[in-house]
């Protein structure tokens, strides 16, 4: 589950969603993944997570697929029960949710859509080689935009060149000169 949360934060960081949508999405995704992990399936089957934006509708769609049979149902657990409330939470927080059979015919995909009126249609940025990044630009690092303060090139001991970007937050970023990075111009540093 930590990997699915990290992926969610990385993806949503570039889509302009607000903190409240991010927190709701994190809880909904956590519940969907938890349910998928509890489905009895062969040990070689994995849970799939897909995060989709539907900017024309102002929606964020979270999809979790598993190889298990059946359809999950909302339960009304008793006060003494410690589990069984996951889909109740999803139903309460999502704009809508549902279940679809997987295209391959094995298992299902449970999806939930959350209202995200501030979601952007396309990330603002372009992909360039690290060697052409310049101070004053912003670069995408682990799902977040960082301002580039300094750029220097240094050789690797094994040959080739590395670009070292001094950023406005966090440690410097050291990457091969040909490494593709997503950048955008300007913005406050």
TrEMBL record:
<dbReference type="Pfam" id="PF13581">
    <property type="entry name" value="HATPase_c_2"/>
</dbReference>
<keyword id="KW-0418">Kinase</keyword>
<dbReference type="GO" id="GO:0005524">
    <property type="term" value="F:ATP binding"/>
</dbReference>
<keyword id="KW-0723">Serine/threonine-protein kinase</keyword>
<dbReference type="InterPro" id="IPR003594">
    <property type="entry name" value="HATPase_dom"/>
</dbReference>
<dbReference type="InterPro" id="IPR050267">
    <property type="entry name" value="Anti-sigma-factor_SerPK"/>
</dbReference>
<keyword id="KW-0067">ATP-binding</keyword>
<keyword id="KW-0808">Transferase</keyword>
<keyword id="KW-0547">Nucleotide-binding</keyword>
<dbReference type="GO" id="GO:0004674">
    <property type="term" value="F:protein serine/threonine kinase activity"/>
</dbReference>
<protein>
    <submittedName>
        <fullName>ATP-binding protein</fullName>
    </submittedName>
</protein>
<feature type="domain" description="Histidine kinase/HSP90-like ATPase">
    <location>
        <begin position="4"/>
        <end position="111"/>
    </location>
</feature>
<dbReference type="InterPro" id="IPR036890">
    <property type="entry name" value="HATPase_C_sf"/>
</dbReference>
């Amino acid at each position: 589950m930590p990997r699915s949360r990290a992926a969610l934060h990385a993806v949503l960081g570039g889509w302009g969603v607000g903190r409240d949508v991010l927190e709701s999405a994190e809880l909904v995704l956590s519940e969907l993944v938890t349910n998928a992990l509890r489905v009895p399936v062969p040990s070689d089957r994995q849970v799939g997570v897909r995060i989709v934006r539907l900017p024309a509708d102002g929606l964020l769609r979270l999809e979790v697929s598993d190889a298990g049979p059946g359809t999950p149902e909302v339960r009304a657990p008793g006060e003494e029960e410690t589990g069984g409330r996951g889909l109740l939470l999803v139903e309460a927080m999502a704009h809508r949710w549902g279940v679809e059979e997987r295209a391959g015919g094995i298992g299902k995909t449970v999806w939930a859509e959350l209202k995200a009126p501030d979601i952007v249609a396309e990330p603002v940025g372009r992909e360039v080689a690290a060697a052409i990044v310049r101070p004053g630009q912003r670069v995408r690092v682990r799902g977040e935009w960082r301002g580039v303060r300094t750029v220097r090139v240094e050789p690797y001991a094994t040959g080739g060149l590395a670009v070292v970007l001094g950023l406005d937050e966090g440690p410097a970023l050291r990457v091969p000169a040909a490494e593709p990075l997503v950048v955008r111009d300007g913005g406050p540093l």
